[in-house]
């Protein structure tokens, strides 16, 4: 007699997302080709070109971040350079400079730093910000004061 085939459990779904849990404290350099969520503490550098980094509400990050997109519910101290967008939500706080084509800061969020908004086709800026200084005006057509 034929037995009914037992169904095997479904294999875990590959979500292409790594996660640092709440109890983790990590120091060092992170580079990868998948999305990353930080719920604990991280200090160092992050390079996730083309991928999304999310800092959870209890996450605390001290790092220079290069990513496709960064979503902040927790705390970040350091410069953030992205190809798409930085989103800082009400519970988020950022101390550092932002370089991105799109930036969203929700009412109630804390931000202290400089913002450089990139235009399409504009090369990514370096990690240092140089404030623009106005050129002195040359007014040769006006008469000199007496």
Largest sheet: 12 strands, parallel
First CA to last CA: what distance? 115 Å
Order of helices and strands: EEEEEEEEEEEE
The percent range for helix content is under 10%
Structural class comes to mainly beta
Shape label: globular
Radius of gyration: 23 Å
Beta strands, count: 12
Description:
There is one protein chain. By secondary structure, the chain is an all-beta fold. It has a domain at 18-117. Helix content is 0%, strand content 49%. The protein contains no helices and twelve strands. The chain has strands at residues 17-20, 25-31, 35-38, 41-55, 60-72, 75-77, 80-88, 93-95, 98-100, 102-105, 110-112, 115-117. Strands 1, 2, 3, 4, 5, 6, 7, 8, 9, 10, 11 and 12 form a twelve-stranded parallel β-sheet that branches. The protein is globular. The chain starts with 16 loop residues before the first strand and ends in a 29-residue tail after the last strand. Mean pLDDT is 80; it is low at 1-14 and 126-142.
Q: What is the fold's blueprint, element by element?
A:
Layout: E1 17-20, E2 25-31, E3 35-38, E4 41-55, E5 60-72, E6 75-77, E7 80-88, E8 93-95, E9 98-100, E10 102-105, E11 110-112, E12 115-117
Throw out a few tags for this protein.
49% strand, globular, disordered N terminus, 12-stranded parallel β-sheet, mainly beta, 146 residues, 0% helix, 12 strands
Give a short summary of the structure.
The protein is mostly beta strands.
